[in-house]
Amino acid sequence: MLKVNSTLAMAMGALCLLVAPAAQAQHASHALVQDVRETTGAIIAVPLGKSRVIRVPVSFGQVVLARPATADVHVLSSRSFYVYGKAVGLTNVLLLDAHSQPVAMIDLEVGFDVDGLQSTISSMLPGQQIGVRAVPNGIIMTGTANDAASAAQAMAIAERYAPGAVTNSISVRGPQQVILEVRFLEADRNVGRELGLNTFVNSGNFSIATGAQTGTSFIGDGLASGNTAFGALRFLNDGRSLIDIQLDALRLN
Asked: Are 78 and 61 a contacting pair, CB within 8 Å?
């Protein structure tokens, strides 16, 4: 019984190995082919420098391309054709039957490779919510970046895909602010008047002094307010004459 179960398991494993590549191949085939369900009004986006396979719902025998400078078109079957984007721009494809009667018309829009750009940004800038949108003759960068450096890097990558045709609509998450600490010092207008020089000369026979005066005497240390000076310098003292110089100022705490 165990032998039978082992054989069955091996057979199922081999079957899975055979089916998985076939399913992957079928998925890849569908990704390469773009189906058009309407005979008019369909717009197919073709990346610049890349190709698309277009499958239509009607049979045709001839293809007429409006602007060969924009794209190349090659017939693959009676219901499919191959398109290669040569230059950015718009054109259309007219499909004719065996009697040269129009059976379908498809618009082609050749633009920049937004899918490739989106893939590159997602791999090089993980965690950023940056999107890419195709517009006529250009692309728009949208979404939100975590910082200004990431937004600038995304724009630089986009310029490689669409030189000179990138519009920046990326917003940066949170404002970047520089905080400065500013201190305001308040000074009294009287301080300028409180800064001065007080001199006192005593030679025995006479005295000379400068500073605030009341009557015939001087008060304080030469300050108009009568405040005490914070510095003094004795210039000469030879026993007979005394000359003192004091630097007077009002000190604010």
From this structure: yes
Residues 199 and 233 in one domain: yes
Q: Are 243 and 235 in contact (CB under 8 A)?
A: yes
By the 8 A CB rule, do 194 and 225 touch? yes
Q: CA-based angle 76:79:83, to the nearest 5?
A: 50
Please check whether residue 214 lies inside any domain of the structure. Answer: yes
Answer positive or negative: Cα dihedral of 161, 167, 169, 172. Answer: positive
Q: Answer whether 85's CB lies under 8 Å from 119's CB.
A: no
pLDDT in tens, 214-228: 444 444 445 555 555
Tokens of 223: 């300050």
Eight-state DSSP code of residue 3: H
Classify 5 as helix, strand or coil.
helix
Residue 191's identity, in one-letter code, is: V
> Between the CA of residue 157 and those of 87, 122, 127, 142, 250, what are the distances in Å?
20, 11, 16, 14, 65
Same domain, 50 and 66: yes
CB 84 within 8 A of CB 72: yes
The 10s digit of each residue's pLDDT in 32-56 is 788 999 889 899 999 999 999 999 9
Specify whether the CB–CB gap between 62 and 96 falls below 8 A. yes
Amino acid in position 25: A
Six-digit token string for 244: 């003192």
CA proximity to 167, closest of 195, 192, 139, 191: 139
Domain count across the chain: 3
Whether 90 is covered by a domain: the verdict is yes
Q: Which residues pair with 247 in a beta bridge?
A: 197, 231
β-pair type (51-55, 33-35): parallel
Spatial CA neighbour of 103 closest among 139, 138, 62, 65: 62
